[in-house]
């Protein structure tokens, strides 16, 4: 992508009341646009990051044998009344409206109920189980405060996975598989070391739920981490009894701020009993289906990654989620410089590498500042100097020293064949 | 995909009040699920069709140089008041709600206003124009009646493209390019011959808007078609004066029912003047930006395709949008049959062909009925008979006669190399 052709430019104009670091940086870099507090549009580069994260998550969900679908935002009152989750006293994040005939409707903030209502029509016998389905859904939640940028929006994308199992044992086996898949996802986006499986408050059915928490000062949670055991306890359930139960000791625990990027709920058979989702077992006896749900905040994860890696010059994207792998900064308009930069852009693109090509007529300092602010992993400078030397000036975003390298070295650092550059 | 592992099955249970043929068929085939009137979830096979259509549209949009982004559903009252489109008297399809502090919010039914507000911060001079951006957005519209299945939903996916131009001439040039891109899209999905560029009522700025209308009895519009000139006139502007203006004659025109699958609006400089979107021209003089918007109903198009091609046995998908190219019906459980069917499934999948593999233990008649209902373009039967003969039984969905073919003939009909099947 040529930056001269891209509408979204870096900017210093950030809404004065935008207090979160992730939103400030992402707005400055032209990745997102704030429509109102907690409501953000994703501009082309931001959308690319989102899609990269979604594809990492999608690969892991498909690997679990889960089937992708997409439920609706509009929700029926009657359905949610069956599980007592319609009333604003019970669920305080509903946005609600009404049809022309006065029928109340809600906007989906979670999807257990419609998923169960839908799957009910497809499940009759044990042969129809287990089932796992997932979606990337735009959730709407009427949050009282929305001050954490894209880490807690009123409109955000969540991957939610729902598993229907025949019994607690089958549920638990899948639960463990998803837990492993989540760990791989956080490793792939570069947060493996900072992410902890965390015990948090459960529901009516289980003592605990499980969260995946990333240690970051930008987070809204407090957790107690045992780094050697790689687990943590959310402050909300932190007490002597729980520590004993989990075989944790206070002197091994560290209090840190963290952001919840994933959670797992075990609903047991409670929702099935409320909604009448039963199956006939091997003996033809009706049994309730066991439900577990697995959330992963896609836009929140993008916000956490932004905050976690950012430095004083701007964003620093891990290669797996970066909107482009390479930033080509062309310095000057000399025909030989333009020719070489154009060629490099075309060759990298042909080698299936995503490139941001800074072909704009602006000062070198502005190009370097933008390359840093946008956080593209590799920066390559093409200038009169490099043309004379017959080298590329190459720098990684997370190092300070640029190096003069030849085609072979550059290809190696980008993980492509040298032939692609010649 | 093995049908034995897929949760969504074909069904005869269609909601009694579901009167539209497209929704009836898509529910029966397990492609969609109705949450409420006019509100449909897309199950795995339905989602595949949607993604195929989106990718066809995306390729054409990118070819125009348009940049993909995603705006928000939640909308600010103040913004839409600036263009007088907030009031329910002016726009009767708003869903509205409010934040916890009482601030009214709307849910996006179109996105000209937020697109303009966003782009305003990036446009200063003629160098920043033209700009074209598009999105695949879930629109919410509070339709009084929703009786046309996914052809007119209360929640639906639209591709909307917005172009900002320096003047009317630049706008018109892009308008023509988009018109050509739309024609290619409708050709690619198999509706080329049935789709007509149609003159419809304009707005404050122009006499006409342009629609793309598909001739189908399922449509809600009436148009007058001149087949030789390949254009049509919407009934809403059909009068002697207009016909004269367009050089059309009543004896060449045919009255037909049709469904609008795309539309083009020329807003001129009206929205820019209302919202204050100006640029400095070559002489430094402030000029209003010219806006055109280009809708294409993605879910509606899927509904039109479903209705248009369906026969008395079910859906008939064109290859470009089909959720799979091949349906393998394995008849029986004999080891040699299972082995050959499994191998064919793996080989086609390895050749990047999407396959639905009917490996279920059900009667042949049910498999044939499902293959027809699902509308998969190619059906291949593997049975004791074909194993003995050393052939494949191959039938296209839109023909009645099955043929015994060898690997070479089968490969040819699927557009792959014979080696892939051996």
Provide a descriptive summary of the structure in words.
2 copies of one chain form a homodimer. Chain A is α+β, with helices and mostly antiparallel strands and 422 residues long. Chain A has 2 domains: 3-309, Bira Bifunctional Protein, Domain 2 (BirA Bifunctional Protein, domain 2), CATH 3.30.930.10; 326-421, Rossmann fold. Helix content of chain A is 31%, strand content 28%. Chain A has 12 helices and 21 strands. Chain A has helices spanning 21-28, 44-63, 77-82, 112-120, 168-188, 240-245, 270-275, 298-309, 335-350, 364-374, 384-389, 407-414; strands at residues 32-36, 39-42, 67-68, 74-76, 95-98, 104-107, 131-140, 155-165, 195-201, 208-215, 221-226, 231-234, 254-268, 278-280, 286-288, 290-297, 326-330, 355-358, 378-382, 392-396, 403-405. In chain A, the strands form 5 sheets. In chain A, strands 9-10-13-11-12 form a 5-stranded mixed barrel. In chain A, strands 18-17-19-20-21 form a 5-stranded mixed sheet, sandwiched between helices. Chain A starts with 20 loop residues before the first helix and ends in an 8-residue tail after the last helix. Chains A and B meet through strand 1, strand 2, helix 2, strand 3 and strand 4 of A and strand 1, strand 2, helix 2, strand 3 and strand 4 of B.
Helix and strand layout, with pairings?
The structure is a homodimer of 422-residue chains.
Chain A: H1 21-28, E1 32-36, E2 39-42, H2 44-63, E3 67-68, E4 74-76, H3 77-82, E5 95-98, E6 104-107, H4 112-120, E7 131-140, E8 155-165, H5 168-188, E9 195-201, E10 208-215, E11 221-226, E12 231-234, H6 240-245, E13 254-268, H7 270-275, E14 278-280, E15 286-288, E16 290-297, H8 298-309, E17 326-330, H9 335-350, E18 355-358, H10 364-374, E19 378-382, H11 384-389, E20 392-396, E21 403-405, H12 407-414
Helix pairs in contact in A: 1-8, 2-5, 2-8
